[in-house]
Design goal:
The protein has two domains: about 260 residues, Type I PLP-dependent aspartate aminotransferase-like (Major domain) (Aspartate Aminotransferase, domain 2), CATH 3.40.640.10; about 140 residues, Alpha-Beta Complex (Aspartate Aminotransferase, domain 1). The longest helix has about 35 residues. Strand 8 and strand 9 form a beta hairpin. Helix content is about 40%, strand content about 15%. Bound molecules: pyridoxal-5'-phosphate.
Length: about 425
Amino acid sequence: MRCRLSALFFKNNIMIIPFSPPYIDQETIDEVTDTLRSNWITSGPKVKALEEEITKLTASRTVVCVNSWTSGAILMLKWFGVKQGDEVIVPAYTYCATALCVMECGATPVMVDVGEDMTMDSLQLRQAISCRTKAIIPVDFAGWPCDYDAILNIIKDPEIVRDFIPETLNQEKLGRILLLSDAAHSIGAMYNGEPAAKKADVTVLSFHAVKNITTAEGGGICLNLPAPFNNDEVYAYLKIYSLNGQNKDSLAKSKSGNWKYDVLFHGKKVNMPDICAAVGLSQIRKYNSNLLPRRKAIALKYLDGFNPYAWFVAPPLDNGYRESSYHLFPLRIKGISEWERDEIITGLNDLGISVNVHFIPMPMLTLFSNLGYRIDDYPNSYDHFKCEISLPIYPQLTDVQTEYIIKSVAEQVERCLANRMSHVQKDSVSLSSF
Ligand SMILES: *Cc1c(COP(=O)(O)O)cnc(C)c1O
């Protein structure tokens, strides 16, 4: 049976629009079937092929695939020697994994607020650096690259470099704070004419089911470490690290006469299976030619559709220097409260449209508030959160669906704002009657 893509789906005469279904077409099914029939389903030739495709797409020195963004970030922080007593700077406005990878190493995530473009604020970043800072993990929010020029200027500033205290061989070799980019959203984003993934020392991608390219679950570590690092050596080390510290993978061991192996150190078991890589391979080959341009076209349609409205705050997409990967369309509605936002979301859900909110700032999550983080310290993060609604954006979304979303959002927002006006009028009437 051929796989049907992007069929319009109705229920009780309402168009049902999911938030972010994976892009699965006949090629995906063929690629996965090929893996199943090959008798080799775990890490092997498909992972290798995917690593090569990602290396090309991101113009990186080399890429290691693992089973999630989270695993990849933990691996790299541990590789750098981040440990208890160290600090790693992260934005408050991100998914919890950005901080959890730091805590997994026993270190402390130091949260800073974001700016108007929803990425890490570089002034606050500079103020947050201490002699314990070992790494910075900025986030390319919604696919929009953060200000890498500003961040690199800060970490390479002689004054900041002087205060850096190396405690491991790799820290000694780098001689400064590590820039590890959270590019879970931003594969394909551009920065000054080059893939944004090249800007940081290490850029970690996510291939979770909702991301621009998926392997169901998965992550990619793009290595662009400066001299004197040898990125190929780091690659070889990470391959062993991601396989329990074992010096031969199952495929190598399966070759005749090659059963003997050694375990060199205490690693982690976070390798990516070929069956997952197959899904990603089918997508990455048509990413720049097809999937990414389609996302961009939808984003531009949203921009056009919402631009006439005074309440519309446009997300950053392209300023001629940086260009988004159009992972999310984070609509912001000027001046609304959390409760008004929720009302609009309920209205959209009733019309069959699934949306999301990116992100609940980390200090508002129980884990982090129990640790003492306070949302009052991150006013911009809260302001974005309270008026943000992420709209569906994916290659299968049709023009008809996009137009239906624009019309429905506009109706819901206008109704919400009109309700508020009538409350205000009623309040002032009842006040003036006293
Ligand atoms: C999805 C996401 C992650 C985590 O990715 P996993 O592959 O699920 O570990 C990290 N950071 C951000 C910003 C994300 O959106």
